[in-house]
Amino acid sequence: MKFRCEREILADALATAGRAATNRTGTLPVLSGVRLDVAGDELTVTGTDLELTIRLTVPVGGQIDGSAVVPARLVADIVKALPSGAVEMTLGDDDLAISAGRSQFSVRPLALADYPAQSEPDVEPVTLASDQVADALRQVVRAASTDDARAVLTGVLLASEDTGVKMVATDSYRLAVRDLPPTSMLETGQKVLIPGRALAELQRLLSGGHELQVRLGTREAVFEAGTTRLTTRLIEGEYPNYRNLLPPSYPNVLTVGREALLDALRRVKIVAQAQDATPVRLVLGGDTLQITAITQDVGNATEEIDASYEGSEMTVAFNPDYLAAGVEAVEGDEVLLSTIDPMKPAILRGQGHDEYLYLLMPVRVP
Amino acid sequence: MPARHVGRPSAQRTVLHVDMDAFYVSVELRRRPELVGRPVVVGGAGGRGVVAAASYEARRYGVHSAMPSTRARRLCPDAVFLSGDHALYASVSAEVRSIFDRYSPTVEPLSLDEAFLDVSGAARLFGDGVSIGHRIRDDVRDDLGLGCSVGVAVNKFLAKLASVAAKPVARPDGIDPGPGVVAVEPGHELEFLHPLPVQRLWGVGPATLERLDRLGVRTVGDLTRLDESVLTAALGRAVGTHLRALAEGNDDRPVEPDRRMKSIGHEETYSADLHTVDECGRELVRLADAVASRLRASGQGARTLTLKVRFAGFRTITRSVTGADAVDTGPAIVSALRPLLASIDPTPGIRLLGVSSSNFAVPSTQLSLWDQLDDDAARPGPGVDRETAGAIDRIRERFGAGAIGPASSVDRRGLRVVRPGSQQWGPDDPSAR
Fold first, then answer.
1. Tens digits of per-residue pLDDT, B269-287?
2. Which positions in chain B touch A174 (Cβ < 8 Å)?
3. Are B72 and B86 in contact (CB under 8 A)?
4. What ipTM was reported for this prediction?
5. Cα-Cα-Cα-Cα dihedral of B395, B401, B403, B409, to 10°?
């Protein structure tokens, strides 16, 4: 195997595929590497931890076809640090030579024979509007759990319902639901659970603005954008019935400017975070919204912003990070915060943007 | 802040150290007058108990606090042993405190039975430090039927030494009532201080004492005559400087009225070692219940919870966990500490278990979405826990701490609720309950 490639392109490819490689102990050592395959003038870089696989193809000046698995982190760090210009990689008998300008490195490869083969679902691809998907991912993936103790909650639910497709995530404390137009990707009534981590990676890949093609199998899903392909295993298990969590009606509605609310939260969080995750209290009633953080040791913060409110006066407290994440996620200039009482879930929506909601459980304070 | 010299009028304070005389015993004698004049010991009566307090009659036999109860029994076989009632002592302590509050807004309690008062500003209202000391003694005697000793000086360190000199003394031939109030007059501090044995200085433990002894230092005065470089070489700069300042009568520490509690905890030494996971789990629930009660009483929640385990061989380990919620309920404390307990093998025998809480904040609970689901209602969520806790508090307020407790704390002797402070002197004799 021998090829030349521009440093920026190669560094980017190694970093992207490397995000799927793993350094977890107890896994195959070869999974800490990325696989390089040269065929003609194409280099394919693959990283996988068996759950998630990222594979991308970049143009190179190919000289000798061949394959190798190299330590992902080490080689990515080397290439990133090389002077800009062309980088040459040459696979020898027992090492990979990396050279650029007057820099010379040799790296010991990992066992190519141990690298797992990739399986592909045999289904027709469906094309989706990548802008819309990227937008939905940005709004929903943030609510997925990162705690492996309850694996289904680390997934994002895609469910085909009568009215269209719902994208749903929850970590038990908040719940994000986004409506998408119907798609032929899912049959009516079909549900799949895609790992949130894979979708977070997909979100990064979609920044290129390419068309997105999806192939949904029974065990895995494949996303392709441009020359990058992301394959993820699906999560098995019964997703909780999120619709039961959505209250039928809300007696109290606060309308407040999104930017003003975000700015106020950012400031109050300075004090709230100084003593772990101190909750922020929202004092609802009248034509201002008061936001306070009260800590025992550090100090207090109070913000007041103009708002309109219909409902009964109350104080409701939230985890400041969860609240800010919800306000960030909604679209539009005005945010609607609907509440029942300080113990019941509250809903954030963007005014005039009914396709998305962010349900949030309060923090109970005395 | 530069060292404040004794006797400089502009900076002069008047500090009182008030120490109750045989406090726990005296409180017991108020309700057991038939025991007055007899040797009485309060403390853990069981095999591993220690003496918390001894009446002056018992002290004549050499019994003193922190002594193992078994040794106290040998020294004074006629002594009456009482297991101690921390709740009572705490409520009497609060009454004593309200007397202190008459004379100064600046009161720093050190424990249930001693406190510092800064009375610098009270001279025009109540007279000088000595007069205030006598008035406090009179009030405590008249209102509460208890005795106390008062030290008066320009700082905390000297005031505390003075109160010791004011105390009653038990001698084999009888009890000397002591002067009651001792003042170290400004300008005469060194006359008082220098003849005292050097171990009376705050910070002189056995190791330091041994080093000083090798240098020929026996009294506080000896220490001041030692060359600074010799002292520093023997004890290190920090300790040397500290002791030198004390030996010269200097102590700048202010009387701090609201020193916040840094932790709330309970630990229990068992009269028989625990050997099984089940036993330890039950004890965890009991201790957590008691700690949670006190957290709620103080209006605080704890983010950090610590489990302490002392094995039969005295090896002691502590393990902590810090969570996002500031918890104040038993179940929340148990669920945080149970994984830590599960990682400990009890088979070598566990002599002591302790649960403590720290890193306080306003109690808060992140509610869960699943609390909302009817079909999940059987699973108690944190919201339910806090309502239950409120009900427990109201029941205990009306009917006493032992009126309600975790079901796992019921055994053939009935419900065993941890009473605050009941165990600080070791376990009671189980057969005596």
1. 888 899 999 999 999 999 9
2. 369
3. no
4. 0.83
5. 120
Collapsing DSSP to helix, strand or coil, A21 comes out as coil
Query: Phi and psi dihedrals of A19, rounded to 5?
Result: -65, -20
Angle at B217 between CA B215 and CA B219, to 5 degrees: 175
Alpha carbon B368 to its chain centroid, in Å, reads: 39
- Asked if A366 reaches chain B (Cβ–Cβ under 8 Å), the answer is yes
| Residues contacting residue B137 through CB under 8 Å, at least 6 positions apart | B147, B148, B149, B150, B180, B181
What residue has token string 């030349």?
A4
The two beta strands, B40-43 and B80-82, are: parallel
Closest CA to A118 of A53, A74, A57, A69: A53
Higher-confidence residue of B199 and A43: namely A43
Task: For residue A334, give the 3-state DSSP assignment.
Answer: strand
Chain A partners of B369 at a C-beta cutoff of 8 Å?
A: 170, 172-175, 245, 345, 359, 361
Whose CA is closest to A279, among A326, A319, A314, A323?
Answer: A319
pTM above threshold 0.80: no
pLDDT digits 0-9 by tens, A213-233: 999 988 999 999 989 999 999
Give me the domains of chain B, ranges plus CATH numbers. 15-183 (3.30.70.270), 194-247 (1.10.150.20), 263-399 (3.30.1490.100)
SS (H, E, C) B231-246: HHHHHCHHHHHHHHHH
> Please, which residues 269-308 of chain B have a Cβ atom closer than 8 Å to chain A?
299-300, 303
Lowest mean pLDDT of A122-136, B327-341, B400-414, name the range: B400-414
Do the Cβ atoms of A202 and A167 come closer than 8 Å? no
Asked if A275 is an interface residue toward chain B (Cβ–Cβ < 8 A), one would say yes
Model pLDDT for residues B111-123, shown as the tens digit of each residue: 888 999 999 988 8
Question: Rounded CA gap, B362 and B330, in Å?
Answer: 16
pLDDT score of A357: 96
Q: What is the rounded distance in angstroms from the CA atom of residue B300 to the CA atom of residue B363?
A: 6
Q: Which helix (H) or strand (E) holds A23?
A: none
Handedness of CA B355, B359, B360, B363 (dihedral sign): negative
User: By C-alpha distance, which of B49, B81, B51 is closest to B63?
Assistant: B51
Cβ atoms of residues A193 and A235 within 8 Å: yes
B114 part of the active site? yes
Interface check B377 vs A, CB under 8 A: no
Catalytic position from the list B108, B114, B248, B283: B114
From chain B, pick out residues whose CB is under 8 angstroms from the CB of A297: 360
- CB atoms < 10 A from the CB of B351, how many? 21
pLDDT in tens, A61-81: 999 999 999 999 999 999 999
Q: How far, in Å, CA of A130 to CA of B3, rounded?
A: 72
